[in-house]
Amino acid sequence: MLMQGFATAATPMNLLYACIGVLLGTAVGVLPGIGPAMTIALLLPVTYVLEPTSALIMFAGVYYGGMYGGSTTSILLNTPGESSTVITAIEGHKMAKAGRAAQALATAAIGSFVAGTIGTALLVTLAPIVVKFAVSLGAPSYLAIMILALIAVTAVLGASKLRGFASLGLGLAIGLVGMDIVTGQGRLIFGQPLLSDGVDIVVVAVAIFALGEALWVAAHLLRTKTQTIPVGRPWMGKSDWKRSWKPWLRGTAFGFPFGALPAGGAEIPTFLSYVTEKKLSKHPEEFGHGAIEGVAGPEAANNASAAGTLTPMLALGLPTNATAAVMLAAFMQFGIEPGPLLFENEPQLVWALIASLFIGNTLLLVINLPLAPLWAKLLQLPRPYLYAGILFFATLGTFAVNSQTFDLVLLLVLGLLGFAMRRFGVPVLPLVLGVILGPRIEKQLRQALQLSSGDPVGLVNEPVAVVVYVIIALVLLWPVVTAILRRSNPRMAAAVALHAEEREVLSGEENDGAPAAGPADGAGLDNGSGRPAQSAAEQEASVQQKQKH
Q: Structural domain boundaries of the chain?
């Protein structure tokens, strides 16, 4: 099946779309504030005229390219294009300032290729196994797994659980709009016939990701010129290869499993990879001053997590991050039912998509090594032009979905909602997951209750469902348990709080000005904590006071 997938993906037209996706993904990864999720959301309306296979191949190229492109801004500009490349900025920019930008970009590109290839091979191996297991599950188990995905993502994202669940509630409410699937009654349509078919997922994705993000970044646009470090064609010396290949493999081992977990993402494995390389390095004194291992490991973890993310998306129909959620919306746009039967119902599409990941990964390496100087020049593009273009294409694409002015009203309302959520630190991913998974959860819930004649016991009559509900309980109760333990031991609570403050101050110094991720999705003000950033003198005084204490 994989060989047949290569035969489909290697056709001239599909290769062209893979190239377009890789180039677009790298470009949006390079530009700070624009991520793969926003790009795919903008392209959703445009791809109505494409074959589903070609469109999804292009989206996969955008995803892989976006994960790679963020390293360019981190290294050359000390401004991570994605939250997952914050760690890369620590050592990568120090290398660039020391005149080793070419080596830093090279180890990032080659590490991304190695990790992406190994991760995709693991996807080929594990996805069919997960599918065989998932097909054997009944409605109660599948319902429990989808609820776990929602709870895990909502409980992990953001500093406030209340804001996370508020976002999830908004998403589930939007997902309920339309006709009831059993009774045919209108729900939340407020007498508007155009809402009878529900809110189109394309409109929601474009509004929340593209319009909301563009309004947010434009509202806080800094009119300061950035100095980009010039770079020639990336290359690596013999010693650089020797110091990089082990971090590439270790980073892959961290990234893939975390990408497959709900809310695992790429941020945690990149941090773990950095800490591990710092512990294992034969040159620990170079960390904080431009150690190549600190770029190679996190970048490999970053790209391996992308392959891990696609495993539950293709095998179970469960997205674990924003980009996967929008890609899942693309499946639904083409009338393809995501889930375990996807491999059985659409084998040609799925295996062509997986094969295109190998092709796109190779294209990334071949294209981006020579084009690094061009991506550096792209950083000088004026931001007002950029976001004006995003707003234009978002409006045009949304109108093209149904050719209805009403969709533009929804776009504006939901776009303002996305802006307000970023303003108040409410994560947007639970909302989009609620819109996508809400109707599917309702379908599985009704099916499970119908099979048990309305008896609630039918929701827990499978062993897998019981285990999953126990995990959900642990996820929800764990913060309560830790809070009780801290209250029972005030001394320990004070020590934990002091350690957290020290770590925050020291990490602010270590990042050398790299912006921290904001409360919502990486775009925030000040130092990302909601408080004004401390000056260097204040930080030093604070550290001295804590040491004295």
A: 2-221+234-488, 489-549
